[in-house]
Design brief:
Residues 43-163 form the Gfo/Idh/MocA-like oxidoreductase N-terminal domain. This protein has 459 residues and is of the alpha/beta class. Helices cover 30% and strands 19% of the residues. The protein is built from twelve helices and 16 strands. The strands form two sheets. Strands 14-13-12-11-7-10-9-8-15-16 form a ten-stranded mixed sheet. The protein has a six-stranded parallel sheet with strand order 3-2-1-4-5-6, with helices on both faces. Helix 4 packs parallel to helix 5 and helix 6 packs across helix 9 (247-264). The chain is elongated, with a radius of gyration of 25 Å. It starts with 43 loop residues before the first strand and ends with a strand. The structure holds nicotinamide-adenine-dinucleotide. The site of nicotinamide-adenine-dinucleotide has 27 residues, from helix 1 and helix 7. Nicotinamide-adenine-dinucleotide is lined by residues 48-54, 74-77, 80, 98, 113-116, 118, 136-137, 163-165, 220-221, 238, 251.
Length: 459
């Protein structure tokens, strides 16, 4: 959505924990969260957007921290307001207008779980209203919305968490630990996929039979997107349209890149290129169902330069293995939210000779001389590779990444800390490159990004 207020900050939002590792010495100030709550205080939440993820988020929030209470919800489909009361109690305050929720003094924190094109607006309104914010991924719908959200957060003194909860899983934490311990040497490549092969996975969610202009506040849904007549598909399957969603990159790459940034402590890529197309789901959507992007990461104080390849294929009729593979000079870490496999594999010092090699093409005399020299240069101990070692990690059964992510949010509220494991600086550093993946695909160009300043650049 177009920002209503262009308040781009000149400096860098240095509130992220990640920035502690940066070499930029830039002064910054974040207003401390003075209205801290004690761990015994009940945190009262409201959910704005009571659709599919609104339910998952609300339940994860409630189970994460004892004493958390849901007091209000907002949604634009009356059926969801009614259903929220059926599930969470008939005393729940429920409104079509999220501003009524923000105006309530009994709401401490809001969960923003709407279609992507509302994230920035509601986040800024909520922070201004003095609420702590948990905003779903991607943090913004467009790159030019990011810095103003960060600015609003910094000015608010409120805690903010972005919702790509997988980084709060035991498996992702283990991947980070192993990488930082040097288990795979210098990183050179990451690949991460999120493929699907079913209609619901391809975002064709069920549409309720009572959907109509009287049960759905369609005009409010459109916000500042182009005005179009009521269309239930646009409302209930908003991901299929760029006006409200962010395509497979914003929806799914964002989880992949968030995981990669968390594990590598990277600030982001410098060059982004995508290729893709609409292969199977030719149902009126204006976003691709197959997308491959290459993101080039520069060397930093925490990692070597590396390439990252992200892929989504919604028409993957083959086998689907959605995982992340981080490859280094001495092995690889392959992981999902639930498990991880570390493979340590190091080359011997001696290069070897023979087989499919030029050695046999030399005349006999030269071969003899070659072997003589080789034996001097590479004594036996340089010829053996260390045995390949595999180490498996299974996340404990009780590991609950979603609840952990909310726990981090609530604990920071209670501590009076504005930052979280996925604060807006981290959130934008993940969102912007994936939005750039879309830009590259639609405009058929390479996008250049400054991951430190969080701005697009010419080259
Ligand atoms: N973290 C995750 O793993 C994860 C998973 C799924 C979805 N999500 C994110 O959650 C968000 C919602 O996705 P969903 O699948 O629940 O969509 P959904 O369509 O099921 O629900 C979205 C709801 O938002 C409501 N809404 C839209 N604009 C609103 C406004 N201005 N005021 C009040 N309500 C409004 C709609 O009425 C709708 O019910 C998206 O940003 C998506 O990217 C995150």
């Amino acid at each position: 959505m177009k920002p209503t207020r262009r308040t781009f900050i000149k400096g860098i939002a240095a509130g992220s924990a990640l920035l502690a590792t940066e070499s930029i010495a830039r002064p910054f100030s974040i207003i401390p969260n003075l209205a801290r709550q004690s761990p015994n205080d009940k945190i009262r939440i409201a959910t704005i957007g009571m659709g599919i993820q609104g339910h998952y988020d609300t339940k994860a929030a409630l189970r994460s921290t004892p004493g958390t209470e849901l007091v209000a919800v907002a949604d634009l489909y009356d059926g969801r307001l009614k259903q929220a009361r059926e599930v969470f109690g008939k005393n729940l305050f429920a409104s079509r207008d999220y501003r009524e929720v923000l105006a309530r003094p009994d709401v401490d924190a809001v969960l923003i779980v709407t279609s992507d094109h509302w994230h920035d607006h509601i986040t800024k309104d909520a922070l201004k209203a003095g609420k702590h914010v948990y905003c779903e991924k991607p943090m913004v719908h467009r790159i030019d919305e990011g810095l103003s959200v960060i600015d609003a957060w910094k000015k608010s003194g409120k805690t903010m968490q972005v919702g790509s909860q997988r980084i709060s899983s035991a498996s992702f934490k283990e991947a980070k630990r192993l990488l930082e311990a040097g288990e795979i040497g210098e990183i050179n490549y990451i690949e991460s996929n999120n493929d699907r092969f079913n209609a619901i996975g391809a975002w064709n969610y069920s549409i309720p039979p009572d959907a109509s202009p009287s049960t759905v506040d369609f005009d409010r849904f459109l916000g500042d997107a182009p005005k179009v007549p009521f269309d239930a598909k646009r409302f209930f399957r908003w991901r299929n349209y760029r006006d409200y969603g962010t395509g497979v990159a914003g929806d799914l790459f964002v989880h992949l890149i968030t995981g990669a940034h968390f594990v590598t402590s990277s600030l982001g890529p410098e060059r982004i290129f995508s290729s893709g197309g609409l292969s199977y789901w030719k149902d009126g959507r204006d976003v691709p169902d197959v997308l491959v992007s290459v993101l080039e990461y520069p060397k930093t104080s925490t990692h070597a330069n590396f390439q990252m390849v992200l892929r989504v294929n919604f028409a993957n009729a083959g086998s689907i293995t959605n995982n992340t593979r981080i490859i280094g000079t001495e092995g690889q870490i392959e992981f999902t939210e639930n498990n991880l496999l570390l493979t340590k594999r190091k080359l011997p010092i001696a290069p070897g000779y023979g087989n499919y090699d030029s050695f046999f093409t030399f005349p006999e005399e030269v071969q003899k001389e070659f072997v003589k020299q080789y034996d001097v240069q590479y004594p036996p101990d340089t010829r053996k590779a260390a045995p390949v070692k595999e180490v498996r990690f299974e996340a404990p059964k009780e590991d609950d990444a979603h609840a952990n992510h909310f726990k981090d949010f609530f604990e920071n509220i209670q501590k009076g800390s504005v930052g979280t494991i996925e604060d807006p600086v981290f959130g934008f550093r993940a969102a912007a490159p994936v939005l750039a993946c879309n830009e590259s695909y639609f405009d058929k160009k390479v996008v250049y990004w400054d991951p430190v300043a969080m701005k697009k650049k010419k080259k």
